[in-house]
């Protein structure tokens, strides 16, 4: 019997009312409806210093970075909504990736929390491209650390105008596309489980 796929959902934003947090929750609901066990985390709850090798050498991986890394290890797939900062990924998202990529113990498999994982990407931005340029960089980063990134991705432009008071997208077609990202990730993970 195939196990339920486990998916970790998060946004690369710390802002309390982040459009990207709203967006990833929509995709997470699509994944749940397709039979996945989904864990949503808010990176605001896991503060950590900027990656610094001297901190790592002196103190090891910070506790919150290790918690995120452990969550990544425990899940087969990722739903990531990435804001675009200056045509790239946010500093907080890159920092989480940088810390999580570091080995916690000498005999640890390199990139243990990323190897063999599958990710679906999305973005929301007040700009006309919806954060698309940042997704290009995120896809490259994840691909280089052995994450299989699904080719389907969606960006939502003019994000300050498109969400309703419940946190869903006003346009049914947009809502459906984001839900489908979660569905597609679950379907692929089930296929990969064999």
CATH H-level superfamily: Flavodoxin domain
Q: What's the number of structural domains?
A: 1
Strand tally, please? 5
Radius of gyration: 16 Å
End-to-end Cα distance: 10 Å
- Residue stretches low in confidence (pLDDT < 50, at least 5 long) are none
What fold name goes in the CATH topology slot?
A: Rossmann fold
Structural class: alpha/beta
What's the helix-strand series?
Answer: EHEHHEHEHEHH
Shape: globular
Number of helices: 7
Mean pLDDT: 96
Tags for this model:
Rossmann fold; 194 residues; 16% strand; five-stranded parallel β-sheet; alpha/beta
Descriptive overview:
- A 5-stranded parallel beta sheet has the order 2-1-3-4-5, sandwiched between helices.
- It has a single domain (6-193), classed as 3-Layer(aba) Sandwich (Rossmann fold), CATH 3.40.50.
- Helix 1 crosses helix 7.
- Strand 3 (77-81), helix 4 (91-100) and strand 4 form a beta-alpha-beta unit.
- The model has no long low-confidence stretch (mean pLDDT 96).
- The longest helix is centred in the last third of the chain and has 22 residues, at 172-193.
- 43% of the residues lie in helices and 16% in strands.
- With 194 residues, it is of the alpha/beta class.
Outline the secondary-structure elements.
Blueprint: E1 6-11, H1 19-33, E2 37-40, H2 53-59, H3 63-74, E3 77-81, H4 91-100, E4 118-124, H5 132-144, E5 148-156, H6 159-162, H7 172-193
Parallel strand pairs: 1-2, 1-3, 3-4, 4-5
Helix pairs in contact: 1-7
Summarize the structure.
With 194 residues, the chain is of the alpha/beta class. The chain has 7 helices and 5 strands, in the order βαβααβαβαβαα.
């Amino acid at each position: 019997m195939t196990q339920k796929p486990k998916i970790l959902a998060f946004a690369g934003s710390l802002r309390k009312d982040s459009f990207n947090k709203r967006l990833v929750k929509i995709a997470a609901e699509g994944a749940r409806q397709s039979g996945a066990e989904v864990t949503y985390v808010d990176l605001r709850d896991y503060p950590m210093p900027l990656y610094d090798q001297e901190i790592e050498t002196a103190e090891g991986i910070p506790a919150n970075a290790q918690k995120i890394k452990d969550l990544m290890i425990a899940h087969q797939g990722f739903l990531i909504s990435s804001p675009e900062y200056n045509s790239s990924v946010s500093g907080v998202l890159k920092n989480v990736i940088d810390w999580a990529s570091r080995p916690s113990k000498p005999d640890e498999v390199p990139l243990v929390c990323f190897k063999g994982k599958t990710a679906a990407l999305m973005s929301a931005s007040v700009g006309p491209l919806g954060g698309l340029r940042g997704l290009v960089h995120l896809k490259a980063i994840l691909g280089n650390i052995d994450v299989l990134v699904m080719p389907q991705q969606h960006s939502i432009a003019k994000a300050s105008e498109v969400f309703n008071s419940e946190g869903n997208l006003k346009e049914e077609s947009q809502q459906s596309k984001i839900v489908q990202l979660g569905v597609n990730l679950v379907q692929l993970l089930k296929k990969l489980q064999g």
